[in-house]
Stage IV sporulation protein
Amino acid sequence: MWNNRPIIIRIKRHENVHPFIQTLHAQHVPLKRVVFREQEVIFETNMRYLSKIRRSRSRYRLKMTVHYADELHVFRAQLWTLLGLFIMILIPLFCAQVVWRVDIEAASPELQQQVEKTFKETFKMETPMSKKGLPTDAIIRQELLEKHRELAWVHIEKHGGRVILRPQESPKQAEQTNEKLATHLVATKSGVITHFNIQNGERKISVNDTAYDGDVLVSGVIESGDDHVFVGAKGEVFADYWLECTFKIPTKLTMETLQQKQWRVLVKGIHSEEVDYVQKKELPNWLDPYVSIVEEQQTKKMEVVLDESKVDSLLIPLLHEKMLRSLPAKTVIKKENLLQAKWGNGTVEGKVLFLVNENIASPIHGPQGE
């Protein structure tokens, strides 16, 4: 079983060759393809009989050489070869089920550190880990977009045991500078103050206090004895408040998911269609007019039926994202409670209550001594 590897025996012609071969037959040594030539005798057998052959050769004093018959074979049908092949296949399959690294590639080191910190604090993953323990792309993207409002999208790529997150920032709008500071910052909504981001002015309310619509949050006029000094008010004041909304959406939804990016070679004259690409490789000037190498971002559409079993996994996240898009920048939805939901006639309608954290400060202008 262990020594069935085929071998070729070459024996120099001698008067003892025939008695030698007869002895091997008597010992039940299988001989295949026996060839008698002018200078030598050649035959094939198995490695397991080599010890018997050597003892007989010594007895008849013959000169013998041994060669493996399968030296030129790519695959040898041996137990060790099969075992090695099995291990060679098993190791990549095992490694493919493990996430070894999670890398974040951002446009700036600051953004990379911020997203990396958020990712570690939110998911608390230790690599290496099983791919079954990795959250879905939708959950990872939702958490990062919610906590980093400056991001437009998070591209997620998976290459073997490596996961790459590429956060993409929203286009920055040019801020209009206005040298004229506001007299006061007043509340546009009622809520519980959570934190301040003030550049100018004096706070008129504290954290955890309740502010009402129209209250002065930050004053740009500081009292100094009988005098009033205008310093201007500028900044943000964030507060929590509850927002109740009604909704009505169809139960059959068509959703688009981003697929893995892929590179494509376009040849002018053959590919005439317009291609929406993420990035393009730079080619030599003499080749660029004729060939383009672009990276495409494919999307996949899928039909989803919304039922009662998908309230937490699909309905709430949809309402969360829809509401978040309608609110100002830097707004965070901390919590959502589904008050009621009613299915019928291919739609679902109801009410949902959101706990919103938003900048409620609005500047007002007036006389500087006001």
